[in-house]
Design brief:
Distance between the termini of chain A: 66 Å
Shape of chain A: elongated
Strand content of chain A: 5-15%
Largest sheet of chain A: 6 strands, parallel
Oligomer: homodimer
Number of helices of chain A: 13
Number of strands of chain A: 12
Helix content of chain A: 40-55%
Strand order of the largest sheet of chain A: 2-1-3-4-5-11
DNA sequence: GCTAAGAATGTAACCGGTTACAGTACAGGA
DNA sequence: TCCTGTACTGTAACCGGTTACATTCTTAGC
């Protein structure tokens, strides 16, 4: 690895000049700059990142805090790969990389009281690595931990967790609007007994989807029935159980909006187990548009999230805060209702 | 952030001693060590990682090279999340983090001739960041690019690509054994016309699965018929097309082993489209055990890969090379046949 | 009591950049 | 011609650790 000093020597200039060429090219005369650039290219020189981070007190890396929540074992993020790809490509165009932070605090994994590892530990790591900012992925319902990040003063952008602070914001889908659209769609198909299976308490997107469900009912001129709202946890099993509970009523719903595709699949299975045919006897709409949605039988009508949009939006917001061009407003990505077979519209 | 010099001052020792406490504690007297440790804990001191990386010429980070292959748009790694979680937890226990490397060379994404970004660029980034090693994820079939990594002298471990070099190895499933087991299972169920839909040419796991298919036939005493081997590309569509082709023969197979679950699902759809019932008219076995496998109808019998094992094994191998305790032999993780409904064994 | 080996610690030179500040050169104005 | 402002470049002090080598302090052996 060739160093800046060597390049400087080869060009007959000082290291400072070489550094300037890479950092504030406008302050270097054209001839000098071109000469340095040529030699640097020839010897494949780029400034060493460790040295640069140390000197600038700022690295070209953004941390990713993504913890598994022991309280939700087996939980899969519905679109982690798209999220990472989106982040990666958006960050790379600004020269940043993504550092997947890991706490060595494995004890936590066995500690039943905490879902997120100590945020303090993460903030410390962030400082020691001179990270430029943090991306936080919701991995449960531990809002307190997120607040600690928001208050640390580090540029933070959360995915699917409402976060606010001096340099913090978040990106999420417009969950309420998406849910409302799903419900209006069901109402337009003639349903007037529409139930919902919600996500876990304390989870922001879950709450927004429930709110959207209510709004959708209101917009369709339908009454809100509290006994048509059952609580789930985003997992398939809870969709199954919730649906079974709903079907056990005297006047069961004819349609259900599940706050996740996983739960919608569970609902599908419960309907099948009850001898009902979907969509003839029961219409089902989910949320997320995960891969399996198009594969189950009947194919699931669902509210699709803008998966690549998350990465782009999160990276954009984070870079804005890193560059101190202000704290962006929270991003609410538009959703899109994908009509397949489970709602009965395609009959 | 408190520095080592400040800790040293507080303890009445030199920085060197503080450094020793964190790096070679045995060389420091017990009383001094305990004193430094106490003060460090009290002031929440840990060595700055940028400075440490610069000074040691080695950071506590491992790079992850994971490119999307434009030639396979929409390709999802069958178990990226498990892989990352496994890597993360195994690395974290040794104090390492995972750096998702991104090349700013976005032009590549539009360049139809190259699948991987320039490996040279990645090697350069690795050096500039003083990364301790690299994890390479197969993202296509560009074996040449991987060879460049292997020859760079950096500790490298590849996932699902055969890699060898002075400090390179790889981890993959025992694809041949898994495929052979699947075929023997079908044979044991009475099938004697067993076809296969392979993965793309040039892909190592695909080749191994095809080899396993042949071995399985031989072990079951069945003849190998070349017209029962159709080439796919791991995607669902190719499974559909391949199956349709197989079914068009005069004496179509009664069972098919697909080298990926995606293709198996495609085969399922093709069978349905041809008016065949699975497993009554056609037995289907896949490979991977992705999430949808248990959800399709009929539920897919498949060769499950040890998903968390990949992360653990890759991290272990990499750490061994980093610590210069030798270059581990390639790891072939055992697979496990998961019998569900599509093979007919559960009738 | 003296010496030498060994243990513990300190000194200072790195690692490879960035940047405040100082210095030089040159153009334009008086 | 001299002065001043601007443009460019160089010097050197950081950033915060690590570590070779020097130094000091013990302690054992004679």
């Amino acid at each position: 690895m060739v160093t800046a000093r060597e390049i400087a020597q080869l060009c007959g200039v000082s290291v400072a000049t070489v550094s300037r060429v890479f950092n504030r090219p406008a302050t270097v005369s054209a001839t000098t700059r071109e000469n340095v650039e040529r030699v640097a290219r020839e010897f494949d020189f780029s400034p060493n990142e460790s040295a640069r981070a140390l000197s600038r007190q700022r690295s070209a890396m953004v941390g990713l805090v993504w913890d598994t929540d022991h309280r939700r074992p087996g939980w899969r993020h519905p679109f982690l790969q798209d999220l990472l790809l989106g982040l990666k490509s958006a960050l790379s165009s600004h020269g940043y990389h993504l550092l997947l932070l890991a706490t060595s605090d494995d004890a936590r994994d066995r500690n039943p009281g905490v879902s997120l590892a100590d945020p303090i530990a993460y903030v410390g790591m962030t400082r020691r690595h001179h990270l430029a900012g943090l991306v936080l992925i919701d991995s449960g319902t531990d809002a307190d931990a997120f607040a600690t990040f928001a208050q640390s003063g580090l540029p933070c952008v959360a995915v699917d967790v409402a976060l606010s602070g001096p340099r913090a914001t978040y990106v999420t889908s417009d969950n309420a609007a998406g849910a409302a659209e799903a419900v209006r769609h069901l109402a337009a198909l003639g349903h007037d007994r529409i139930a919902t299976i919600t996500g876990p308490r304390g989870n922001a997107p879950a709450a927004a989807r429930t709110e959207g469900y209510r709004r959708g009912l209101a917009e369709a001129g339908l009454p809100a029935r509290e006994d048509f709202v059952v609580t789930g946890d985003f997992y398939r099993e809870s969709g199954f159980v919730g649906m079974r509970r709903l079907l056990a009523r005297k006047d069961p719903p004819t349609a259900v909006f599940a706050a996740s595709d996983e739960m919608a699949v569970g609902a599908l299975l419960a309907a099948r187990a009850a001898g009902l045919s979907v969509p003839a006897d029961l219409a089902v709409v989910g949320f997320d548009d995960i891969e399996v949605a198009s594969l189950v039988d009947p194919a699931l009508t669902t509210v699709a999230q803008d998966k690549p949009g998350f990465g782009t939006a999160a990276a954009g917001a984070l870079l804005a805060m890193i560059d101190n061009t202000g704290v962006p407003e929270p991003v609410h990505l538009p959703t899109k209702l994908v009509v397949r077979d489970s709602c009965g519209a395609t009959r």
